[in-house]
Structures
1.
Amino acid sequence: MASLTKSKVGSARMKTFYAILIPVLILFVAFNTFPLITGVFYSFTDSKGYGAFNIVGLLNYADLFTDTRVLNSYLFTFKVAVVATIFTNVVSLMLAIALSSKIRFKSALRGLFFVPKILGALVVGYVFSYLFTWIIPAMTGTESILASPDLAWIAIVVVLVWQGCAQTTIIYITGLSSVPEDVYEAGALDGATGWNKFRYITLPLIMPSITTNMVLVMKDMLMVFDQIVAMTSGGPSQSTESISFLIYNNGLAGGQFGFQCANAVIFFVLIAAISIIQTNFLSSREEQL
Amino acid sequence: MAGLSLEHIGKTYPNGYEGVKDFNLEIEDKEFIIFVGPSGCGKSTTLRMIAGLEDITSGTLKIDGRVVNDVEPADRDIAMVFQTYALYPHMTVFDNMAFPLKLRKVPQADIDKAVHEAARILDLEKLLDRKPSALSGGQRQRVAMGRAIVRNPKVYLMDEPLSNLDAKLRVQMRAEISKLHDRLGATIIYVTHDQTEAMTLGTRIVVMKDGVMQQVDTPSKLYSEPCNLFVAGFIGSPQMNFIDATVGESAGKVTLTFGANTITVPDAKAAALKPYVGKVVIAGIRPEDVIEEHEHADGKNLSEPIDATVTVYELLGSEAMIYGDVDGGSVSAHVSATNPARTGSRIKVAFDMDKLHVFDKETEQAVVH
């Protein structure tokens, strides 16, 4: 009797689980998995995004490796992503340490530093575009770096770091708060202060946060898009064309739908591979607290 | 090793709360001092002030004659063992123990020698390559000890180091710490709320309450001559019996009356009670000094018999505890396991009057032991 009641309860619980799970699963498949599979399919075609198309096999993939514009977009994207990821993490960690110390208005300052996260990337991009186009040149008497094919990427990095720091800082603050206070106290008695405290205690013990941030920030930076749209539209001279921007621009407006689908598939595989390598490499350095 | 001097030490928090008030203590070289008291009494705060982990609001702290109020923890030449062990989770046992020496730029050969010597003393030699997460509680505790030992500090501070261990391991580690003290000849300041640890380990015990030092004395003196009601109740388990009694005088003898019972105070204690004639005092007697009629009482100076009804009987193995009601109060008594008294029994008990304590009801200070 007892087992019968138990099984009835179990069955009702399973029904609830399915009632929650199935609608979400349908939405996920419809708006994520299906478009992904469709995209992979179109990557084997010469589709322009409209009208009839032919299956071309691996031709798009072969062409990707010889297309200078595509290769330049990869070089630009990786350069920006690596530099921005390093700067975002370094700046965020410094901010997190400062915001975790015994200072006044700590909560208010933490809120303030999170503001860039809640602002739209396009809005931030346009504001910084104005700053780099008009204000900084007026103050320094120089040309806008957005007009320079060699320097425009730096402006993109500045905006990415400024906005990326918000979430990254919060994750570092959480990581720092998880380090037991008595470990720091033991360190203080052992002589670990200042740089030694950071190097030998803090840094090894926040490795889980570093892993999370490195993976998330790298992924976000590789997918840079909004800031490019708002600040440079890929210019000058296509010098700031990111992969996402190129896929969008040429895929939807340039008649290269099939070709850019192949680009997107390669890009997806690359990001997944980088994330897995980063996670495996960094998690091997994590310690259980 | 070194002595310590705490002169008028006080700790006031920003919200005005006084954690420690006017704490004065001279600690001799090689002493094993225990700070004991209930939670929130200020014992850990005092220890942390000695360590340099808390600022000293007022007073002077000297280690080996040098004022160290404003000296960084690392420069005080002290080592501390924490309740939670506070091991570095990312380092091996060897690295945990070597860390303080490494930061002091001690040559690697000397580090190896010091760590292996400490590991040998603490039986950690086979665990040197393990990380703390792969160790048991007792092993972690020993690593924490090892980290302190390798530095050969002037003073060892221990903040409830055994409270996270199970009962059996605690007894074992207690003995280890005692042996370690003998072996190192170290000055140790040890915080605990466990009076058994305090009584068994300390050369002197500091009893604290509400940030105020109540009494400093040897374990035996603290037990036999508590200075006030708090110390009398805190030291000793089961705790001392307390009964409100009226002091009287008849036929030249001083008596204590509670309910229908009147007991005669021995002449040696009577003089101190004369000013209290007609007043209510608190009589204190430890359970082992309450003698049930079937127990041996040879050579004891027993009071008049007192009727009691047993309310609780607890067999502890080789002995038993009985808790009973008497007219005017309640008492607990240690009895042998063969004693026939059981719950509901009507028995007679008597107090060993040489062991009677009397406390002033208003000031709670001891009047006579």
2.
Amino acid sequence: MCLRLRWINWRDDVRSRFNRTSRKPLAMNKTVNPKDVISGNDNGPLYAARKKVYPQSVSGTFRRIRWGLMAFCLSVYYFLPFVRWNRGLGAPSQAVLIDLPNSRFYFFFIELWPQEVYYFTGLLIVAAVALFLMNSIGGRIWCGYLCPQTVWTDLFYAVERLIEGDRRERMKKDASTDPMKLERISEIVLKHSIWLLIAWWTGGAWVLYFNDAPTLVKELVTFQGPMIAYIWIGILTATTYLLAGYMREQVCTYMCPWPRIQAALTDEWALNVTYRYDRGEKRTSVKKAAELRALGQQVGDCVDCYQCVAVCPTGIDIRKGPQMECIQCGLCIDACDNVMSKIGRPKRLIGYDNDINIHRRQEGKAPIYRIVRARTIVYGAIIAVVGGFMIYTLATRRLLDINVLHDRNPVAVKLSDGSIRNAYTVRLLNKSGYDRVIATDANGPVNATVHVVGVDSVTPDRPMIVIPRDTTSELRLLVTAPAENNPERSIPVHFHVMDIGLGVAASTTDNFVSP
Amino acid sequence: MTDHHSDIDSLSGKSTTGHEWDGIKELNTPLPRWWVITFYLTIFWAIGYWIVYPAWPLISSNTTGVFGYSSRADVAVELANLEKIRGDKMVALGAASLADIEKDPALLALARAKGKTVFGDNCAPCHGSGAAGAKGYPNLNDDDWLWGGTLDQIMQTIQFGARSGHAKTHEGQMLAFGKEGVLKPDEIVTVANYVRALSGLSTRTGYDLARGQKIFAENCVACHGDGGKGNQELGAPDLTDKIWLYGSDEATLIETISQGRAGVMPAWEGRLDLATIKAMAVYVHSLGGGK
């Protein structure tokens, strides 16, 4: 009964909601446009086409910084796999290598094993906090200068500009309805060819991080490379071509979570690319401004030339204030500076600034910049602590290690003469680049004997084992306590392994149990 | 709620959806076209799944899809690949002698790994997953062996079993001295106490151990030997050590003597191939008790 009532309530509730949102308004409308029914709203379409952005070329400080960082980032990405690092015979000689089949990660002098992947956790913490730190100092530095999406899009725009001309020409060519001439067709073909070439090289460089680069390049060009390499090159060629050639600013606006996150992370002291409206408003023409100034009136510096909009790679107007779409690349600063110097007004009408200083200037006070404040100190401290801890653990990590697992079933075995034996699975790790001869020892019950299955002891009770370089060895180790020394309760056993050549040692502790 | 049909946000100039929370209105922002296209493409793609893969449950089966895909067939392919990868190594294991397997670290590791899984599948029901045994089922970790603890002896026992009915099986059993009327009840109790004394266990007062020794000499030495040290040829256990298959208390010993014992170990030849049996022999030997 109760259930039925609930069901009816729920059903009616759903029905009424359904009616309220879709049926009633439509039924009340006298003239129903079929298009509105599809869009679900009569105030606009459900979706909108992308408005193509035609960024204009610009020169200046920030453009130079971006060129420099682009060259740096791309060089690192494309050429790093070819950097060599000598690790001795038999070991890979590539400085940065992710060796998936052998489960090893090489980074110059560092070699990480799968069980040390926790270092990446530290790296991710440092990377995340470094983003926060950048954000609290200078806004979206990552987005504007370093993000691969920005770097490759900028490169693709440069190619486009080189072949098809600057903003106006490109707009004119795209808008033209005349039948295409050979020149225009060849331009389009050339542009896409170069884009695809860059995209292909991007995919090609990616796979080189997973295999010996010179060997793989030779294999790839002779079509003898592994299929998986070609597949990954194909995938990355496609994503690079699409994301940098077509999606562009839409990746930042619609796909990336960072614009939203950074809005929550910023504070009143963070410097962002800002239109200084205290100086810019009210906007007038150059001529009118000169006239009004001559009369001693207050006029803004902005001459409404729209250069900041023309150069913007995301197609926004920075003068509308901080916007989610703004990647803060600083190109509008360059564009505005060029105009300001031409009309003889001071530069940096657009610059890295914040609202506090705009208000202070409006009140006639000097601006204050607070790079060092609680937030940046905390972020810096987190980076220092996590980074320091990582360096410490990396510097002190053992190249010889031992793990011991006591047999769980049976925990102890009684032998025919009454003595007690415990069995252990021992894993020895040799992370060094050379084979080791290891002496194994276990100290627990008095006069206990130690035996390793499959190993004839040379020295009594100290079995010798050879572990090849860069591998682990699993051993079955038996500790037997004579009947008269049989401990009544569980006592600790200390396992001790030593490289007899180098004297390097490692130890661990487990228990010896009686049945 | 305001009429959203004509509600324009004064700051942005955009229309709103009419939804308002504490004075904050939601702007009516259209989705990007590519997003909508991608969304419909994924729906279209999902329909493709229905057609090419098994999807719809029927009464006793399901639609098979035009690709004829089945996860079971995938497993069969994977298993065949596994056998192919293992092939050479298992051949090497089958070819090597038992002693050589234990000396070669690579073969030992393979035999132990293989032996462990096969043991879990076939032997664990009686001997336990860690081979610790139970009453009547020997603990294979210790150094006390009914039929011998060398690699070859272990291999033989696994291959042909004990009292298994196989032509080459281990034979010999503990007779039911009481049931068959060979020994009288008081003789059984006396010899049981004598057997306890053999391994240094306490005996009940009032029983003549000398008489027990006499009964033992007349009935038991044929299999268990003069000093009760046992005989691995016959599977007769050593009665002087600290390990008891069925138990060392008086009641259990009386039961053993009067009812007899004849535990069965099945023969694994024919059920498992030779390489697998070898792996298992090495595994059991390496548990720690191997001779």
